[in-house]
Specification:
homodimer, Tetracycline Repressor, domain 2, 0% strand
């Protein structure tokens, strides 16, 4: 393909493959050298590719960063999407969803602190990508809450407002800043206590 | 007085007065020049005092910073302590306490951003001061929850654990990082929704 690829819709085939290779190389360089020291030219050199070829896929360093962050967030969301798609108790699924989100973020801090720091910086810069991510988190929680209402587990008039409240109430455990600050400390017991309050709220018809 | 003053217990009289003057001068310099550029020598110069005299009250720049942060936090806590001491509905007082804490932090960002940034840096460095502050916040919330249990409003077996959960669930609205990040945006509606969940939890006997 000769035309520049758009960052969200990507056709199958060779262009898509090259795009993935560029993202993987960029991820690797971010891990080793950090965001400030990673340039499009470095990425091209690592792939023995002309930087014109990289620019064919990503029009700027910012676009490349956004795509790297987007792919990272996509991977984090995989087990969460699976929980949303399950049948079974909404209360149990919502608790598992919150615990999984916190565990995913925590695992990044523990297993790959340099990459987490690089991604955190990317995420802070890439506002639109982060907004789309938060929207997806809200959609996930609202979907489980709607299931809970249908199953007669929850009494909630406005699932979207309730989803916002659930994410706000638990952000202490999954927001990148706090995950970083707590150095990957296990906060499971504290999450469970907050979740008990949240669950009582979703059952009470208060929202 | 000739002996160095300890930072927490301070006798009444001239020593205490000098100590307050030093803290006020340090606060003023922090506001104008930031934490990195404010030295004990600057504080002494602003007061036309020998720096040996400043050191008589604060053994190091760190000790001075801690005391400045402590005084700032003490001021923030005044209206909160008053709410704890009131009679009346525990649910209403707890909501007002949370809203007041968020409003206090928000006011600092809006009205005095430079000083807030300097204090935020001081707070991040002065771990012991911050821990004492969080302990006081927990004590406040636990006291209101105990009142609520006595008044038959709440069903809570472990008020301290419940207080931790309440502060965790609302930290999105009063933690310095988020207050700074949100640029002082009014989050009252979002706090109220989270508080509804929290309140249902405190009434349900889940904690």
């Amino acid at each position: 393909m000769k035309k520049p690829a758009t960052p969200t819709v990507e056709p199958e085939g060779k262009g898509s493959e090259t795009r993935e290779r560029i993202l993987t190389a960029a991820e690797d360089l971010l891990r080793r050298h950090g965001l400030a020291k990673t340039t499009v030219v470095d990425v091209a050199r690592a792939l023995e590719m002309s930087h014109a070829n990289v620019y064919r896929h990503f029009a700027s360093k910012t676009e490349l960063q956004d795509a790297v962050a987007q792919r990272w967030l996509h991977r984090i969301m995989e087990p969460l999407r699976a929980i949303v798609a399950e049948d079974g108790s909404a209360a149990e699924r919502l608790e598992r969803w919150v615990m999984t989100l916190a565990a995913q973020k925590r695992a990044k801090v523990l297993n790959d602190p340099e990459l987490f720091a690089a991604y955190h910086a990317v995420a802070q810069a890439a506002r639109a990508v982060v907004e789309a991510h938060i929207d997806e988190l809200l959609d996930n929680v609202a979907a489980i809450i709607r299931d809970g209402v249908e199953r007669g587990e929850f009494k909630v008039a406005d699932p979207r407002a309730a989803a916002t409240a659930v994410l706000n109430a638990t952000s202490r455990f999954h927001h990148p800043y706090h995950v970083k600050e707590s150095g990957g400390r296990d906060t499971s017991d504290e999450i469970r206590d907050v979740f008990k309050l949240v669950l009582a709220g979703l059952r009470s018809g208060t929202l």
